[in-house]
Amino acid sequence: MEIPVSGYLVHSDDSDSYHSHSLYITTWDGRPVHVHRFSGVTSYDVGHSHRYVGETEPAPSGVPHTHRYFTFTSFDDGHRHEIRGVTGPAIPLPGGGHYHEFSGVTTTSGRVPHSHRYRGRTSG
After folding, report:
1. How would you class 71 by CB atoms within 10 Å of its CB: exposed for 0-12, middle for 13-18, buried for 19 or more?
2. What angle do CA 92, 40, 123 make, to 5 degrees?
3. Gyration radius from the chain CA atoms
4. For residues 70 and 55, is the Cβ–Cβ distance under 8 A?
5. What is the DSSP string of 30-93?
6. Do the Cβ atoms of 85 and 56 come closer than 8 Å?
7. pLDDT tens digits, residue range 94-120?
8. pTM (two decimals)
């Protein structure tokens, strides 16, 4: 199955022998794509919590969808955690647009190995 995708690549200006490109998808199967911002504070465990902020992966507009997300927490108490998952389905907003709910558990890290819970809503 082939799905037409359009977008553009941006070349990195890194001066070393390795370089990277960023891919920005603008349409998926003829539909524009969009992203959502998300942020929050993890649960308080083992004497601390962490902040996090990120942007979801793109998804098509105008159809039922979810978004994948990935970020790292702030560096607190000598460590950080990874946050990743898939949002819930789109929830319509009264004035148009939508948001997504998300929740999960961070990866395990720290001097005393532990994880944190998190939950929130994406931007609309």
Report:
1. middle
2. 25
3. 17
4. no
5. TEEEE--EEEEE---BTTB--EEEEEPPPEESSS----EEEEEB--BTTB--EEEEE----EE-
6. no
7. 998 999 999 999 999 999 999 999 999
8. 0.76
1 CB-near residues (< 8 Å, 6+ apart): none
Task: Give the CB-side neighbour count of residue 1, counting CA atoms within 13 A.
Answer: 2
Q: Are 57 and 65 in contact (CB under 8 A)?
A: no
Q: Quick one: what percent of the chain has pLDDT higher than 70?
A: 79
Contact 60, 66 (CB under 8 A): no
